[in-house]
Amino acid sequence: RSVFVLNGPNLNLLGTREPAVYGSQTLADVQQLCESACARHGLALQFRQSNHEGDLVDWIHEAGRLHAAGQLAGVVLNAAAYTHTSVALLDAVKGSGVPLVELHISNVHARESFRHHSYIASAARAVMCGFGVPGYALAIDAVAGW
Ligand code: DQA
Predict the structure, then answer these.
(1) ipTM, 2 decimals?
(2) I want to staple 92 with a disulfide (CB 3.0 to 4.6 A). Which of 19, 57, 84, 100 is the partner?
(3) Ligand 1, from 86, 108, 119, 138: best to mutate by most atoms within 8 Å of Cβ?
């Protein structure tokens, strides 16, 4: 079985982007952490990032098909800013039926009020934020049990 770890807009800039908020680790570091976490559970990793909303929609659909075929444990989604704007991502999660963790590196509830609302949360199986980059490994540990 596999796990999809999907990253949305601007997460390609991790490491240099607002390091006081997101830390100094790069997206390549996040990918390595996820590889290790998946290896511990004998899961295959699909690790992706896009700045384009439709790519994320397509990947959630793909994950839903694999889940229906018994080939995918779940999805870890950091939709970044699209979390707070995208009805399309909500509909994709609902429509695909895929079990999903909504993840944020930062504690979005301690930040600007526009980050307090998530369109995705109501369709997610679990929501986590504020654990920093290590949160990705925690999320994979949880998905491995699904
Ligand atoms: C984020 C939080 C979002 O509010 C923000 O737009 C991001 C990253 C996080 O990982 O903390 O781009 O999802």
Answers:
(1) 0.99
(2) 57
(3) 108
